[in-house]
Amino acid sequence: MSKQTMKSHHTDYVLPAEWSEQSGVQMTWPHAATDWLPYLEDITHTCVEMARIIVRYEPLLIVIPDPAPVKARLYDEIDARWHSRLHFFACPTNDTWARDHAVLTLIASDGRVLPLDFKFNGWGEKFPSVLDNTINSRLAAVGFFSVVPEDHTDFVLEGGSIESDGRGTIFTTSQCLLAKNRNFPCKKSFIEAQLKAYLRAKRVVWLDHGNLIGDDTDGHIDTIVRTAPDDALLYIGCNDADDEQFDDFRALEQQLMTLRTADGKPYKLLKLPMPEAIFDGQERLPATYANFLIINGAVLCPTYNQPRKDAEAMQTIAQAYPGREVIGIDARTIIRQHGSVHCLTMQFPRGLF
Fold this sequence. Notes:
Elements: E1 13-14, E2 22-28, H1 40-54, E3 60-64, H2 67-77, E4 86-90, H3 98-101, E5 104-108, E6 113-119, H4 122-125, H5 135-141, E7 150-156, E8 162-164, E9 169-173, H6 174-177, H7 188-199, E10 203-207, E11 225-228, E12 232-236, H8 246-258, E13 268-272, E14 279-280, E15 283-284, E16 293-295, E17 298-303, H9 307-320, E18 325-330, E19 345-349
Parallel strand pairs: 2-3, 3-4, 6-7, 9-10, 12-13, 17-18
Antiparallel strand pairs: 1-5, 2-19, 5-6, 8-9, 11-12, 14-15, 16-17
């Protein structure tokens, strides 16, 4: 595999929008040494279904300590036409949330790519993360990426905490990026300057509302607001005044209405429904339709066995990303560990592998 050698500052890099052309997706597979043990077969079934869909559209990298059993199962359950799109990497892992420990990849106007490796600290040292924090360097060491990642492992940044429009605007949330368990005692001005420098961004938009109850990431933006073509923003809205999240999400909606694009125009706002509350015992889980994955030719949308709201969410997503097939993924098992479809995956732009 050839390696790029041009220095990153010689080219106009940007963090691409997720709907840009991709070279593949990473999933970090569940196994018995993770928190998934009590329902390992259920989550494995969900991951197999996601893998089966993804490889119809693009390659899939699966990271897992022992690939052999997973490879055998996927080869058995996935049409042989797509087997060549499956890639496996043996690596010790703590958990499954590729969105937050995988590389973030910039792309330049001439097609060059630049992966960035940030520090992952288990969402503020809430959970073990030492092994997951080595995955990127291990992949780089075996030459998986077409260019060696830029090392920024002195700075904590999770993929789920930022959202890009592909034109130099980064969206994030104050609650997450300013959390004391990330880059404390760094101030907001410093964090914003770092985001602009590392991600080659022109501006950073901070959202101050919309934290889902049960979200242990401290408010990742990919659970509440997503970018779409033509200056559109999809966001979770709450119409139930009796829902304890109503006021916070009404404030989010009001803030979004005040935002302007880099050209000074209002955003086109597309409201996604708030799922009916889902509980694990007495604990409310952070179910959301915003945590969808965009791939080449399709969007994988989380569903929660709520037919009316599932359909409404999928219709809104189809409106935002015309020309893509919108495919529902039953996320009821994923949400038991407080994540969803987007959290389990990381897309790589064209040219990374």
